[in-house]
Amino acid sequence: PGKKVLIVYAHQEPKSFNGSLLKIAVEELTKQGCSVTVSDLYAMQFEPRATRNDIVGHLHNSKEFNYGMETWEAYKRGDLSQDLVEEQKKVQEADLLIFQFPLFWFSMPAILKGWMDRVLVQGFAYDLSKSYDCGLLQNKLSLFSFTTGGTKEMYSNGGIGGDIRYVLWPMQHGIMHFCGVKVLEPHICYAPEHVSEEKRKEMLTAWTQRLKTLWKEEPINCSPEWYFK
Ligand code: FAD
Ligand code: ZN
Fold this sequence. Notes:
Blueprint: E1 4-9, H1 17-31, E2 35-40, H2 67-77, H3 82-93, E3 96-102, H4 110-119, E4 141-147, H5 165-176, E5 182-183, E6 187-189, H6 197-212, H7 224-228
Parallel strand pairs: 1-2, 1-3, 3-4, 4-5, 4-6
The chain binds flavin-adenine dinucleotide (FAD) and zinc ion.
Pfam families: Flavodoxin_2
Protein name: Ribosyldihydronicotinamide dehydrogenase [quinone]
Cofactor: FAD; Zn(2+)
């Protein structure tokens, strides 16, 4: 109770399976006494492109544009665009970040990748020599909750897609761990479009059940071995 949760949600349709997973998380966590904030990226028409527009006012080097350098400098000056300032405030306040999305091309939808690209600015999320266990977003947890088109068999070791953990490496280790955020076990709903209505209900119940004991969970040991052993 009293924990703060930010759910970053990337689906266009509230009636979708992802929409149902979002609704469940908001309801269950609120019931527990958590304060829940949702960034509904499509509804917000969140800008996914990392451009010059993310810096308000003058540039550090107007002769040759360098996005990483300019956003780092703008962060220090307090000159990042308002949409980024707002997302960073939500991240700063959160104890837990939940990412809810459908798997797109073995990765996250572009709008969510754009959120990562633009919000997790140097100086805010990481810095020179402040990465991985020393990243700037310490004492936070993250959880990747996503759906797939492919079945569990396809994403098992020996399956056509390879172990699902391979796709988690860039997201969990390359982004969250890099920024110092601890990682809970992912929550994966396989092929909601291709299973029975009954199976879909079971998957939704399993998510509710998991959320009930979420705060007792230990983070994974987010190291290369977890992904590629
Ligand atoms: P939906 O189609 O919204 O939901 C499935 C069914 O559940 C629907 O019939 C819906 O009505 C029903 N439903 C919703 N709520 C409830 C409820 N409360 N109770 C019961 N039923 C409910 N897949 C891969 O595996 N790998 C990839 O690399 C990949 N790349 C993709 C790239 C793109 C560009 C796209 C568009 C898709 C890709 N996919 C891939 C497939 C994608 O991951 C799936 O289509 C998606 O995960 C399905 O989730 P959804 O929420 O959109 O399902
Ligand atoms: Zn890691």
